[in-house]
Amino acid sequence: MPTITEIGNELAEVPFGDMLRSVAVGIAEGQRALDLVSLQTLIELTKIKVDLIPEVTEVITPAPFDVPVSGQSPVRVTGARVSATPSAPVQITALQAGLEPTFYQFTEATIQLKMSLQLREVTETDADGNKKTGFRAFSSHVNFRTKNTFTYNVDASSSVTAVIKPVPAPPRLVPTTITVNALVQPPTVNIA
To answer: Facing residues of 156 across strands?
Structure first.
């Protein structure tokens, strides 16, 4: 990525179109940087290995027992026993497990610039020597010099707002649960 060296020269004025183009290029470069970071995260997620238990099998079986009652014979109570057995773990990449990089996108950019605009008559000469006269807008920033020199009144500030929202865990990281209910005949199977 090219580096920018600050020269230190303050521009008195810039053609308005050039200034807008510069802002648009800055946004495009920011979007490209965001995309490249997301793609690098995607590549890293293909390298990270995790052990995943794809299934847990639960079997519910009858387990009756007697409950003693004072002065009476014991009462038979229907009970149940649940035994859980996980399947063998499988090694997969974090991407296969459902972890995905987040991609961000500039969906809206609001730029508020405090500047002084001037219209000037400009004569331009093309490569063939033809002259063309027209009007062009020029902009200059308002800083302490222009404010004090021309008693220009302006308030300026900038702010950035970012909203981060949580997302649920990737569904592939949560094992499938198979429940076999042997308390009923025929036994029922529930997969969740």
So the answer is: none
Burial 162-172, CB ≥16 within 10 A → b, else e: eeeeeeeeeeb
| Residue 36 DSSP one-character state | H
Question: Buried b / exposed e across 23-52, counting CB within 10 Å, b at 16+?
Answer: eeeeeeeeeeeeeeeeeeeeeebeeeeeeb
**Alpha-carbon gap, residue 111 to 30, rounded angstroms:** 15
Helices (H), the chain: 16-47, 144-150
Q: Average pLDDT per run of 10 along the chain, which is 192 residues long?
A: 50 66 79 85 90 91 90 88 92 85 71 64 83 75 55 48 51 71 87 84
SS3 content of the chain, % helix, strand, coil (to 5): 20, 35, 45
Cα gap 44→171, rounded to integer Å: 20
Q: Are strands 176-181 and 55-62 parallel, antiparallel or unpaired?
A: parallel
Q: Whole-angstrom Cα distance, residue 78 to residue 62?
A: 7
Tell me which residue of 141, 137, 143 sits closest to 16, measured CA to CA.
137
- pTM of full prediction above 0.70: no
